[in-house]
Design brief:
By secondary structure, this protein is α/β, with parallel strands linked by helices. It is built from three helices and six strands. The strands form two sheets. It has a four-stranded mixed beta sheet, with helices on one face. A two-stranded antiparallel sheet has the order 5-6. α1 packs antiparallel against α2.
Length: 127
């Protein structure tokens, strides 16, 4: 279950346009990261006070947490793909897109009242 927090200071023309952007981003992220689109949880926020490099020009700040496939090689590939996406969809140049890719480990991701590691262990016992 990838988790993504995206904050941008780019204001879209309406809530519907923002919703469309989030849906497009979810689909893009699923293809890029290689996980089922329905597994993603994305918190996408507009913040007019987001600053990058000392100014308020169009920017994005993204934290992506994905179990089992976050590594230095994928971080390079994902960084390029995400930067290109934000430049195309929001007009944010790559030098104003700050991205963090993390794998907290299954012991540190909670859901269904337990952790991802417990859920995985229980599934292995059943299957």
């Amino acid at each position: 279950m990838p988790l993504i927090w995206l904050t941008t200071n780019v204001k879209l023309e309406s809530d519907d346009a923002f919703r469309t952007f989030v849906c497009d981003f979810r689909q893009f992220a699923a293809q890029t990261i290689g996980k089922d689109e329905n597994a993603f949880i994305i918190d996408c926020q507009y913040n007019p006070f987001l600053t990058c490099r000392g100014g308020f020009e169009p920017s994005v700040l993204v934290q992506t947490m994905s179990l089992y496939n976050t590594n230095p090689e994928n971080s390079i590939l994902w960084s390029k793909a995400f930067s290109d996406f934000f430049e195309e969809k929001l007009g944010v140049p790559p030098d104003r897109a700050v991205l963090a890719f993390l794998d907290a480990g299954p012991d540190f991701i909670g859901m269904k009242g337990t952790t991802a590691s417990v859920i995985r262990a229980n599934a292995a016992k059943q299957g």
